[in-house]
Amino acid sequence: MTDCIFCKIARGEIPANIVFNGPNVTAFRDINPRAPTHILIIPNQHVADIRDWNAYGGVLNEMFQTANQVADMEGLSESGYRLMFNYGPDANLTVPHLHLHLLGGRPLGPMVMPG
Ligand code: 5GP
Ligand code: ZN
To answer: Is 99 a catalytic residue?
Structure first.
């Protein structure tokens, strides 16, 4: 997609702190990290959101495989981490290109977000 910021990151057209770049999936550090490790894992092809999860066959498998690898690279496999998809306004989805949040490096607390 021409105007999509995450498509541009996947294509290398705008800079990002990329930690993994494969043929189908890219992982890069969130520009506004909410934890010491905050990485976004995206399909390189445009998929709008998690409700369209089957749009690009098999890519979710690769995204979760990449999450395992990136978590290991970040030294989080023992301490733990959180994987998260946002969808829609109540979840504050802001970028309409499928992305899996990987958060870790500190205790994240219970799965209750501030209002
Ligand atoms: P959402 O709220 O849509 O689930 O998460 C989108 C995330 O993308 C946010 O955490 C935001 O900080 C991050 N983000 C938005 N624009 C950019 C950007 O240009 N570069 C990077 N690295 N992260 C971005
Ligand atoms: Zn896109």
So the answer is: yes
DSSP codes, 38-63: EEEEEESS----GGGTTSSTTHHHHH
pLDDT score for 1 = 77
- Domain 5-91 = CATH 3.30.428.10: yes
Q: Which of 33, 62, 47 is nearest to 96 (CA)?
A: 47
Q: 27-63 pLDDT, tens per residue?
A: 999 999 999 999 999 999 999 999 999 988 899 999 9
Amino acid at 43: P
Compute φ and ψ for 70, nearest 5 degrees.
Answer: -65, -40
Residue whose CA is closest, atom 16 of ligand 1? 31
Q: How far is the centre of ligand 2, averaged over its atoms, from the C-alpha of 109 (Å)? A: 31
The Cα–Cα gap between 48 and 98 comes to 5
The answer to whether the CB of 94 is under 6 A from ligand 1 is yes
State the distance from the centre of ligand 2 to the C-alpha of 51, rounded, in angstroms: 15
